[in-house]
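EI: anyone free to look at a 42-residue chain?
SC: sure, send it
EI:
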Amino acid sequence: MNGIIEGQTIFVVAAYVVTWLTLGGYAASLLIRGNKRPPEDS
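SC: here you go
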């Protein structure tokens, strides 16, 4: 059973990397978009 778990660890790591890259890219795009646009409230 350990061999199976160890063999699938790469998929778990890859899933985490893809998730963080997606969230990070989305957050970065929001920050860039928010900084380019002049604030409407103040």
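EI: DSSP finds one helix and no strands in the chain.
SC: 👍
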